[in-house]
Amino acid sequence: MKAMLYDSTRCIGCRGCQVACKSWNEQPARPATFFAGPGYQNPADLASTSWTVITYTEVEQHGRVDWVFGKLQCMHCNSPSCVSACPVAALVKTDLGPVIYKPERCIGCRYCQFSCPFIVPRYQWDKPVPFITKCTMCYDRISNGGVPACVKVCPTRAMAFGDREDMIREAEARIASAPSLYLHHIFGRDEAGGTCVLHLSSVPFDKLRYQASVPTEVLHHYTDMVGIEGPILSWVVGGLALGLSGFWAFAQRKAEVANSEGESQDTTQRPG
Amino acid sequence: MTNHFVDMKNADVVMIMGSNVVENHPIAARWLEKAKEAGSIVLNVDPRFTRTSSFADHYAKLRSGTDIAFVGGMIRYALENNYIQREYVLHYTNASFVVGDGYDFGDGMFAGFDQGARSYDKSKWRFLLDERGLPVRDMTLEHPRCVFQLLKKHFSRYTPEVVCSITGTPIEAFRKICQVYSSTWAPDRVGTWLYAMGTTQHSHGTQNIRTYAILQLLLGNVGLAGGGISALRGESNVQGSTDAGLLFGVLPGYLKSPEVDAQTLDQYNKKYTPVTSDPRSTNWWGNTPKYITSLLKAWWGDSATKENDFQYAYLPKRSGDYSHMALFEAMYAGKIKGAVFFGQNPAVGGPNSNMERKALEKLDWLVAIDLFETESSIFWKRPGADPRSIQTEVFLLPACSSIEKEGSISSSGRWAQWRYAAIPPLGDSRSDLAIADSFVKALRKEYASGGVFPGPIVDLHWNYGEGHEPDVHLVAKEINGYDWKTKKQIVGFAKLGDDGSTCSGNWIYCGSYVNPEDDALALNGNRMAKRSRAYVYPDGSNDQRAAEAIGLYPNWAWCWPMNRRILYNRASVDPRGKPWNPKKAVISIIGEVADGKYSTFKWVGDVSDGAFPPLQNPDGSLREDGRYPFIMKPAGYADLFTEGLVDGPLPEHYEPLETPFLLEGRHPLSKTMHNPALKLWTTPEVDDFVKSAEEAKRYPIVATTYRVSEHWQAGAMTRNLPWLCELVPDVFVEIGAELARRRGIVNGDRVVVRTPRGEMRAYALVTQRFTPFRIGSGGRVVDQIGIPWHWGYAGRVRGDSANLLTPHVGDANTMIPEYKAFLCDLQKA
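^ Those are the sequences you sent over. The predicted structure of the assembly is below.
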């Protein structure tokens, strides 16, 4: 099983990964204003078009201000709740490690969104036929012997990719070599029963805006029963989801009209 | 850079000052990360805690514009504690030279200043020469007028207390930086110094770099792996363009551009060819006549003959300042009729944008060549302008991007790397070369029927193929140079002649494109296209282990001069030829020793800086055929004390033109507030600086400008890319939390920043990463803010340019604008 190791202490917050992710996965940019999160963070959180987001946090440590970076993305759980919650098996845990998504099976129930302890899957509210989106660990790349796009582009090798056991060993070795630098915790080794994305940090993981309170127990038992009802349930929730999308599209259209009226003015004159 | 990017991994200590390398050169961070992994310590000094500071082990803040005070204090620390590599200093620098009686220094002023002309008489700073014309040296370094003692005296005033009262640095943080960095005085411990525009863009920018060079020399860090001075260039091919003569003071290959008093080639050669009476000094610039003649031959070909001075008369002779600001001053005054902007966007990038944008209105015509419509190409419809009143005719020529064309690109580390076109040019766009080629061909057609001075144009040797597009390989071959008769490529600049037998468009690139039979690893002789990890040199010599250990990669691309990856590498060995740092030897000797003397010898490792033997034999006896390692200096020694700069032989701290110390009327080191030799303009619209204590109260905040990872320069290339616009859509001002609280500003507010030149609006980014400085003896609190300058009124995302605020004043030597330190006021909009 493969895994990614993200080392926050090596990250420089350049966001080459955020752009590489959009480039490889052909995701568009969304209009933005200023910064939606602390520091230079954009967008505010993971989105249907943003499968990974770098976070910026100013912290006091060792008596001085420091600036630390985090990387939000799918954790690719070993026992994924989203897979067990999905009534139609649209989400699949692969042997290679990534949890991937089969849109042709998806009925838009969004149970995966509610079941995910890391709050990762996003819904395409802006599409007439919306799907769930999230990081695939670039399954198309790694199943052909490559590495994920974000890993490939990282200038400081803040991300490593390899067999999960090797990544854990590497993480342990880094902590052992710089015990005063690192938090002695490999985030993802045990969380939710273990994940295929592992994180190292010098500050508590909630400071990087991770779901740090996720317990170490396997969580998918809580969502296993959902799949029982199978096809019947799928029609019910599918219909519901379609209706919600309609509402969302209507609201969005209103917002867009308002926006485009604003855009015709020179944006340098944008009111404060 | 004396060294190169890969070499950063060899450093034991990395100092990053005046550069935000991690944000603005993220790929360089790959090699810094490797250095850190190997246990090296990274230091960062910057007014603001940046992504680079977060990467560093130790950070110290300083107020913008006070580098000389800071590094002057580091120099004092090294000298007082004797943390210097004495043997290196003694043998390779001019520390032992005795300075003549004319030199003096007092209260911030050097001897020889002419108040009226605002310039120094540099003859006052000359070295004492003996009867043979050689510098008088004191090898004990005790002579009161030897450079070492003068240096010691000069910087003795830079005590930690005085330094920190200028820079606003917490004294403990300053001491920590001094301690860690000066540890590299040990011969086997090496520090590299990274800088960029945070150092250069000051009215004393060149002297900022001088302080770095002096400290690096005292610590014995120049010429070694993991050492040197690393100038990180602001754009990917800025190195290549300055190599090619982009700046007004130089021709290709850093040959001096002629001044009016050099009317003939003979006068040029006399004026610009340095001489030495020391037989042990290589004085490489002594070859100037060969290089200028080969250049003239490349430009005017068969028409350039010995009889007509190789058409030297065709070169324009300068009589003044043609730097960016001087050109815009002239444009503003209506003296310039037309302009061509090749990938330039001065309406955003130039200082005092309001003035420079107005200057563009005086042009009859403007040609803008760019990938996108830029602020400069649409200056006539900018906010607030009335297009009906602007008569300039503007042409926008679509250029293609780097992936649509073939050619070389030179990195900061002097590597010329060949690139191929990935796709054909999109739409009607064309390569810069194709555009320049059509330009010249059209001009020649016009001038064929006569004109005011048709010679330089009609006689141009212009033969880059007959196809629709010029052949970039023919251009590269001419830059390398060839024998005029046989048309065979020249393999190195030692083979260039001053008799018209050879041509070379840029002597430092001679060796980049040779004959196919000269280099088995280079396809068709194009060494810039080499992509091999092999370590075998063409002459068969090989030092695989050494080359691998320090990452020379000599067969990956090609590097000027002569594929030498580390400049001044003969200073990496002691006078007897033994590497100071054997673990990371750059060059070492293979040879036989008889009776304590080298009987045979050869340098292996990097391409040595000349094939000369070391200064001494293993037994310490002098070798007459040895040569000093600093071959580009006439005397052969590195300059601790220099006669080369217009504003002083030693660096001295001066405040930026706009300084909070206007309130005190002086700064703690002297009553000389500003660089006395800096150039001021007289145009009333431009002479709008904060000059008095009264005005300094109205504009109490120090401001600086910079870039972010996500945008590029004036923004045309990135503010048109949706993904990057999503990351950083709007211009913002970084404001310390304390200042924000005092001004009632919260994160995300709109704010207005004002200087006497103009005002701009932006979002407020309130941060802990900017904290107030305490300056002067009383510890007065001064705030600083910072603004990225990428925005303008063209492109997908728009905003005010930070250069609406910056002043039209430049460095005394280079005329680079002082973008990095000025005064402003800030309010909630």
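Strands of chain A lie at 2-7, 53-61, 64-72, 91-93, 99-101, 122-123, 132-133, 159-163, 197-200. Helices of chain A lie at 16-25, 81-85, 111-115, 139-142, 149-153, 164-177, 230-263.

Shout if you want it in another format.
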